Amino acid sequence: MSNETEPTVSFLGCGSMNEAILGGLLAGGMSPASVTATVRSAERAATLRQLHGITVLATSEDPEANRRAAASADVVIMGVKPVGTIELAREIGSVLKPTTTVVSVAAAISLAMLEAALPAGQPVIRSMPNTPSRLGKGVLSISAGNHADASLMAQARKILGSAGTVVDIPEEQVDALSAVSGSGPAYVFYLAEAMAAAGVELGLDPGLAKILATETVAGAGFMLAEPDADPTALRRAVTSPNGTTEQAIATFDRLDLPAIVAAGARAASNRAQIITEELDN
To answer: Which of 27, 43, 99, 204 gives 20 to 30 Å between its CA and that of 14?
Structure first.
């Protein structure tokens, strides 16, 4: 992005998800001068300044930090916890420029809830990223609010695209997407934990087992990222007839691992719906 054309972006709240997006944007070439962030503590603010070279305001030192950051922004990315998102939207609403796009990465906060908390006509986009965005390898969805036109969606797509793959989806599919890609990194890390534990059970040193599991999962991820990679074809290529891998896969099938994964994803999606209903009441 060139400094002449890139928008000013303010990250309100800079926990793991917003910092992941922030890191991806900066790694993708966005100028630190175009970015402002807000956090609670002065210590956290100092850490982010040192790490990223951006302007960071601490609400513990300046109660107006969120409003100051929002007032100067072309794009505001709200990254506080879902329970605080609507309150934050109300806090900044009166200082926003009418053209400022508000992007929320909070799970369970609907576009309708955001639009009701912000000034009438404010452009709103809902995004569901995941933590690999920190490495520029994330998946980030975008769903348009009533006043986010094609040009604003394109702007959001360009900004978030530096953090990974951006997919446009209707809002009614956000919970399903979150159950796959939003929570998905945790599933993969859980698999790596289980593989390491299996290695220990088979007699490997715990440190070695962790290395083997971690590097295997990471390496497989690189293979999946290759052009035209297909997970089924990759799996079959490793699964020789009557071989050791075939025995492992047969065991997973007997225990119905796909059904277990599907049940977990459904539970995540259902929980998101419940949280939305709780926060909307």
So the answer is: 99
> Is 166 in the same domain as 207?
no
pLDDT of residue 25: 84
First vs last Cα of the chain: how many Å apart?
41
Q: In the chain, where does DSSP find H-type helix?
A: 16-27, 42-52, 65-71, 82-92, 111-117, 150-161, 174-177, 184-201, 206-224, 231-238, 244-254, 257-279
User: d(Cα 51, Cα 41) in Å, to the nearest integer?
Assistant: 16
SS3 of 14, please? coil
Query: How, if at all, do strands 124-128 and 138-144 pair?
Result: antiparallel
- 165 and 45: one domain? yes
Residue 5, pLDDT score: 73
Radius of gyration of the chain (CA): 21
Q: Could you tell me which of 119, 113, 110, 112 has the C-alpha nearest to residue 91?
A: 119
Is the separation of the CB atoms in 147 and 101 below 8 Å? no
185-209 pLDDT tens trace: 999 999 999 999 999 999 999 999 9
Q: What is the pLDDT of residue 4?
A: 52
Domain residue limits at 30: 9-171
Residues 107 and 141 in one domain: yes
Angle at 106 between CA 42 and CA 217, to 5 degrees: 90
- Kindly tell me if the per-residue pLDDT of 2 is higher than 50: no
Same domain, 226 and 95: no
Q: Which residue has the tokens 């992941």?
A: 20
